[in-house]
Design goal:
Elements (H helix, E strand, L loop, with lengths): L13 E7 L3 H6 L3 H9 L9 E5 L5 E9 L1 H6 L14 E5 L5 H14 L14 E3 L7 H19 L7 H15 L2 E5 L10 H7 L9 E7 L5 E6 L1 E5 L8 H4 L7 H16 L4 E11 L11 E3 L5 E3 L7 H13 L5 E6 L3 H7 L4 E5 L2 H14 L3 E4 L16 E2 L8 H12 L5 E5 L3 E2 L9 E2 L4 H12 L4
Parallel strand pairs: 1-3, 1-4, 4-5, 8-10, 8-13, 9-10, 12-16, 13-17, 14-15
Antiparallel strand pairs: 2-3, 6-7, 7-10, 11-12, 14-17, 18-19
Helix pairs in contact: 4-5, 5-9, 7-10, 9-14, 10-13, 12-14
Length: about 475
Amino acid sequence: MPHADFAPASAEARPLHLVAADRLDAALAALPAPARAWAEAQGFKAAAGAVLPLPDGAGGLWGALVGLGDAKARARGRFIAAGAASKLPEGDWRLDGETDPALAEETALGWLMESYRFDRYARQGAAKARLVAPEGVDADRIRAIAAGEALTRDLINTPAADMGPAELEEAAEDLAEAYGARLAVTQAGDLIAANLPLIHTVGRAAAPHRAPRLIDMRWGDAGPTLTLVGKGVCFDTGGLNLKPGASMGLMKKDMGGAATVLGLAQMIMALGLKVRLRVLIPAVENAVSGDAFRPGDILQSRKGLTVEVNNTDAEGRLVLADALALGAEENPDLMISMATLTGAARVAVGADLAPFYSDADADAEAIARAARKVADPVWRMPFHDPYEPMIEPGIADLDNAPSGGMAGSITAALFLRRFAEGTRYAHFDIYGWNPKPAPARPKGGVGMGARALLEAMPELLGLGA
């Protein structure tokens, strides 16, 4: 679906003033008399997200004010000014030339993300206000980031009936074609021969037209090697450990890891980062049929480790295991997995934070710094080695769902680390969904961690300034 873009520079664009509450008096004093009188009459206090169109004194529209709130509101919020995209009257707008450069960049990106609409099935009332790219910002970079985020949102928001493994493959094909990447897909009938048994086992119960596959995309021929692995469970019933209805309602988003790595890959390719990129997506549906895998089964993995199945609803780590083992065989300079993996992560940090795991302190610090800079919040979690015995059942090498209910996100991450052994590795346990609308983040599918990783790439991979 088309994504939002900036308005062309034009003398017709109206001025947009971003006003902090503690600078309101100075901001009002700088306005033309009719606009100032109107703002004072309306009692504008520059509350966070407040928008006030301003008259020109001749019955027309001169410009607008957007409140940023006080220091406390600004510390708590992000993309505060971006909500104006959905509140302002139709037309083109330009930021006041005195806007802080960092605020201008955040607002520009937030504006494009606020303007996103998922309108595949019904018209959503597109934002009519367009922003001229502020002076001094890298408009092409912002466009690329917003477009990658839009791709992620579109994929997650699409219902499972229209976003199964085959459709996820088509999305990867479209992306590869657009950027000259190479795509190879291991289809269901070849998964066993290709030594991808866990992907086959999890997906084998699905209908033939929703059969499992491994999507493998490569791009770039120079620079450090980066492998992105995304969980592509296009719908998760829970398998024979069937989820209750309330837990199944959002399972169209269980391919959010795949959607996020594809969005990140689009950003990387659009910006021409000097890396050799590989994207691996095990695309499956965890369905229920006579051929479904069972609790108590002991499964073989690509790496040779055996896995006891204690819950068929812990399937994401199984399909990721084979993909991680495949990726690790090339010993990339950095491998990252992204997955909507555990409810435990949501209990720990909620819907807004992307928890991640890394054994490398320098990598974790680089990701955290980048996340703060681009307002894409993350939180480091521990690969806590003393919990390793929790994933060792004795009857097999590994347990896919340790009993006890404790440390669920950590034990899942430890499980995945076994298959990424020998590589420099980070894992993101994301939610992929915004439960209520916020500036630049409408309710629905959302990318988490991708912008932070993109910002951190130069430091993580030594790409230079």
